[in-house]
Amino acid sequence: MRSANGIAIGESVIFMHEKNPGVKPREVALVRLFNHGEGAKAIFLTDDKHLHRRPAVSPNGEWLAWQTNMTGNDEIFLAQINGTKKYNITNNSGVDGHPWFSRDGKWLVFESDRTGNMEIWKLNLETFETKQLTYGGNKYASRTPRW
Predict the structure, then answer these.
(1) pLDDT tens profile 109-137
(2) With a threshold of 0.85, does the pTM exceed it?
(3) Which of 60, 55, 69 is closest to 17 using CA atoms?
(4) Phi and psi of 53, rounded to 5°?
């Protein structure tokens, strides 16, 4: 199993698994791997028919956020850490990506081009209100925001 962009969670890791590297369109699943060696167990958290990438885990380890194209354009989804209860939390015509949780787990910071330029935004995880944080005119594109 090929892996990239992993995040450790206790005794497991969540990583990106590309089904057929080099084939377009890309098919990348998020997988959680428990243990290692002969006792390893892999659980697919997403399908492998779309491009799911850039996983982020909440500080309390209960939530997973990631960037996906499964709605036709890049959005950020939120799910319980086991992959259930999936929600599209950005749901707009812009490209949204690179999610990252605040240290208190109340906010998600991400990049979006919903205003025409790639800027940094934050989303309140209780109210789902968003607020633009930067106004740099693409200056912040693909810089992977970190809280």
Answers:
(1) 999 999 998 999 999 999 999 999 998 87
(2) yes
(3) 55
(4) -155, 175
CA distances (Å), 123 to each of 11, 67, 79, 100, 143, in order? Answer: 29, 14, 15, 10, 18
- Per residue in 59-94, pLDDT (tens digit) is 999 999 999 999 999 999 999 999 899 999 999 989
With H, G, I as helix, E, B as strand and everything else as coil, classify residue 51: strand
Strands (E), the chain: 4-9, 12-18, 28-34, 41-44, 52-57, 63-68, 75-80, 87-88, 96-101, 107-112, 119-124, 130-132
User: Are residues 122 and 130 in contact, defined by beta-carbon separation less than 8 angstroms?
Assistant: yes
Residue 119: closest CA among 133, 99, 131 = 133
Which residue bears the tokens 């499964």? Answer: 70
Tell me the two tokens of residue 133.
């944080």
Q: Which amino acid is at 109?
A: V
Q: Assess whether the previous peptide bond of 25 is cis (omega < 30° from 0).
A: yes
